[in-house]
Amino acid sequence: MPIVALWLLLVGLFFPASAADPTGVLRLTASAPGAEVYVDGAMIGNAPVTKYLSTGPHKLRVVADNFEPFVRQVEIQAGRTVDLAATLTPGPGSVEFTGPSGSSVSFGGQTYSVPVRVPSPGAGAVTWHAQAPGFETFESTLQLVKGRNYLIDLQLESSEGVIEVTAKPSGARVALDGQDLGAAPAKAKGQAAGLHGVAVSLEGYGTAYRQIDTRKGGRGSADVGLTKAMADVVVNTGKDDAVVKFNGFEVGRGSTVKVAGVAKGRIEITVESGEEVVATGKVDVPGSGTLTARRSGAAVVEQKPLTSQWGFWAAVGGGAVAAGTAAAVVVVANEPEPAPVGDVVVTLP
């Protein structure tokens, strides 16, 4: 009796397959002796090989350097042996990608739908990246050996709960919902779906605030360009327990909150008390100086200095006219806003 057959008989006698887990036998030879044999992605040995397998379909892969991979699906039946001779044909080597449905891979300057097997471009390093809807883009470098076959099973990371922030200039610090993420580009994982506030800061530049919306459960991102134009922002809330946020990022608490060095541009100021939003509004931060905002009912509005209001200059102007024409000319020249149209009643001091 051949040695292999005797070995199989002994295994069957001492380790019988249970009825709950029936098995069969795969007996494989290859035209390239020593070829590696894989079943369902796991290596089971070098050809020739004999292996007990569970019943049902299995993906078989036989590979050897300088040969094309031999790939088949085999059906294993309980108590039976499948004899298979794998004939390998000469080839230059290859790189094969498998992965999630809908994924694609960019390799050697071309983009392919996965699964795909690409002829090897030869020895050397090659960079590739893979992407799929709902997954993070993955990039890696493969050091190729001439004539060798490679199998890459893409294990892509889900994009759900991922927030990434990039910024210019480089070296800017990123904070997400009050948590320091380090220097940009910065990525956070496992974030809950919802609205998130981001602050990006760098010495000599105004701090930029952004809000990222992931309420639909997808990936969130922001690309922030910093500016050296900045101003201080003061928010008068009128509530000691108020929480002030710029574009969803908490910047302070209390009845008066002052934030230095806010980047020029439009921001949304939100005032919260407890879990409730009590006021919100958008203001334009200037490139220098100080902007003061206040809560007015359910709105947050810019609070202009007294000297920029027409009523102030109207009142001062009444006294100035009495003092002489030259003074009246100075008042008009300093009046930053046009006078209202129509009759205006002004109460003089």
Provide the gyration radius in Å: 36 Å
What best-fitting shape do the alpha-carbon axes yield?
Answer: elongated
Q: What's the number of helices? A: 3
Low-confidence runs? 4-20, 318-336, 341-349
Major sheet details: 4 strands, antiparallel
Account of the protein in words:
The chain is mainly β and 349 residues long. The protein has 5 domains: 3-86, Immunoglobulin-like (Sandwich), CATH 2.60.40; 94-153, no CATH class; 163-225, no CATH class; 230-303, PapC, C-terminal domain (Immunoglobulin-like), CATH 2.60.40; 306-349, no CATH class. The protein is built from 3 helices and 29 strands. It has helices at residues 3-14, 310-323, 325-334, and strands at residues 23-30, 36-39, 42-46, 49-54, 56-63, 70-76, 81-86, 94-98, 104-107, 110-113, 116-119, 124-131, 138-144, 149-153, 163-168, 173-176, 179-183, 186-188, 195-201, 208-213, 220-225, 230-236, 242-246, 249-253, 256-263, 265-273, 276-285, 290-296, 299-302. The chain has a 4-stranded antiparallel sheet, with no helix packed on it. The protein has a 4-stranded antiparallel sheet with strand order 10-9-12-13, with no helix packed on it. Strand 2 (36-39) and strand 3 (42-46) form a beta hairpin. Helix 2 (310-323) runs antiparallel to helix 3 (325-334). It is elongated and about 90 Å long. Residues 4-20, 318-336 and 341-349 have low confidence and may be disordered.
Which key features would you list for this structure?
349 residues; mainly beta; Immunoglobulin-like; 5 domains; 3 helices
